[in-house]
Amino acid sequence: MVSGKRIQNWNNSSFGTVTFADVVKQSLNTCFALVGLDLGADKLVDYAKKFGFGEYTGIELPGEEAGLIYNPDEMVASDVATMAIGQSVAVTPLQLVTAFSAIANDGILLKPHIVKNIKNANGTIYSETHVEEVRRSLESASDKTLVGLLEQVVAAGGGRKAAVRGY
Q1: What is the pLDDT of residues 79-104, one digit of tens each?
Q2: How many CB atoms lie under 10 A from the CB of residue 120?
Q3: Helices 77-84 and 41-50 sit at what angle, rounded to 10 degrees?
Q4: How confident is the model at residue 11 (pLDDT cuts 50, 70, 90)?
Q5: Are 122 and 99 in contact (CB under 8 A)?
Q6: Phi, psi of 164 (to 5 degrees)
Q7: Is the dihedral of CA 150, 136, 35, 10 positive or negative?
Q8: Which string of DSSP letters, residue by residue, matches the chain?
């Protein structure tokens, strides 16, 4: 119970004593809530912002939304706990893909683009987008650890159905 709100796991069960790898593999809300509470509102929101949540990506499409993210000064403990499990925030699908791409790019957040290039009828390039680094979201060593944990989600955890043979 956090600020009068019950945080429970996906199956309403307890998993006992587990390693952090198991917390990630099994997506244990109770443990992630504790991690969020240990981090605190300021750090949790700061990490979310480093991955681009709560801001525009700058994609070349009209109508983009920045999503919603808490002001850490206005958060109560239950807000911190639920944000740590992916609730109490609103992110766009593009923000989510961009954040996971940063993890795949050694912790570097890149500006997303829809069109790589436009060619003239004769095959020459009319216009082209270039890779634009926004910021480093995560240190390389931490990123490698996170990639290993996320691979375990698919190999042995709750994401087995997302496994791609040979990858």
Answers
A1: 999 999 999 899 999 999 999 999 99
A2: 9
A3: 30
A4: confident
A5: no
A6: -115, 120
A7: negative
A8: -BTTB----TTS----S--HHHHHHHT-HHHHHHHHHHH-HHHHHHHHHHTTTTS----SSTT----B---GGG--HHHHHHHHTT-S-B--HHHHHHHHHHHHTTTEEE---S-SEEE-TTS-EEEE----EEEE-S-HHHHHHHHHHHHHHHHHSTTGGG--TT-
Structure tokens at 103: 């993890």
pLDDT for 16-53, tens place per residue? 899 999 999 999 999 999 999 999 999 999 999 999 99
> Would you say 18 and 31 are in contact if contact means Cβ atoms under 8 Å apart?
yes
Residues 117 and 85: their CA atoms lie apart, in Å, by: 38
pTM check: above 0.85:
yes
**Interval 52-77: pLDDT, tens:** 999 999 998 899 999 999 999 999 99
Residue 2 corresponds to which amino acid? V
Asked if 143 contacts 103 with a C-beta cutoff of 8 angstroms, the reply is yes
Are the CB atoms for 29 and 2 separated by under 8 Å? no
User: CA Rg, the chain, in Å?
Assistant: 19
**Strand pairing of 125-128 and 133-136?**
unpaired
